[in-house]
Write a structure and sequence with these properties.
Shape: elongated
Oligomer: single chain
Number of strands: 6
Strand order of the largest sheet: 3-4-6-5
Radius of gyration: 21 Å
Largest sheet: 4 strands, antiparallel
Distance between the termini: 34 Å
Helix content: 25-40%
Length: 204
């Protein structure tokens, strides 16, 4: 939820915070970070090629160098920094309200379509701008492919690295089709997605 909800480690009593950079922070894939409270020790997964102690046999114990082995992916981190600066310029709340507005509009227009099943609690504001659905019993991969080929709409099908969620909803074989809404989407794109889902639900 980094980039959707404000996070304050001290106020929220967070000892270790891990975040992905390529989702709501607008960074390149393969970026992310970990923040730990002072005094918390984490064992490094990799070691070697320290920049600050190049002649020492042991990897440095100080953070963040303790967790940094080899050459940093500097150009990707520069992209993540650009994403963070953009979020600061627009404002997290402005981004969130825009994205939730698009997701809410899409949800309201597809939730009563015959053959469409929506997953999740849309009564709460504490949610991210994602709408996951299925069209009848069709495999989510088939639905996503059709959306891409026939309507030029990109979605994410399958298990979304959340097996327990799919066990809860009984979609372990079918998966779900995930529509993710961004600040860079438009209401016209939302309406086009609604038309696509409506047409597919009527003929599949």
């Amino acid at each position: 939820t980094a980039g959707v909800f404000p996070i304050h480690m001290e106020r929220q009593h967070i000892d270790a915070l891990c975040f992905s950079g390529h989702k709501w922070l607008f960074g390149p894939q393969g970026t992310g970070g970990i923040c730990v409270r002072p005094g918390l020790s984490i064992r490094a997964l990799l070691s070697g090629d320290s920049r600050i102690q190049p002649f020492e046999r042991q990897h440095p114990a100080v953070m963040p160098e303790h967790l940094e082995a080899g050459s940093l992916n500097v150009h990707a981190l520069a992209g993540l920094r650009a994403g963070l600066r953009y979020i600061q310029s627009v404002g997290l709340d402005n981004l969130r309200q825009s994205e939730l507005g698009l997701a809410r509009r899409f949800y309201e227009m597809v939730r009563n379509l015959v053959g469409v099943r929506i997953y999740g609690n849309f009564m709460t504001e504490l949610r991210i701008p994602i709408v996951s659905l299925n069209i009848q019993d069709n495999p989510s991969g088939l639905v996503s492919d059709m959306l891409s080929v026939e309507y030029d709409i990109c979605t994410r099908p399958g298990g979304h690295s959340a097996p327990l969620m799919h066990k809860h909803f009984g979609t372990e074989r079918q998966g779900m089709v995930r529509f993710s809404f961004s600040y860079f989407n438009t209401m016209q794109e939302v309406e086009r997605a609604v038309v696509a889902v409506r047409h597919m639900a009527a003929r599949m």
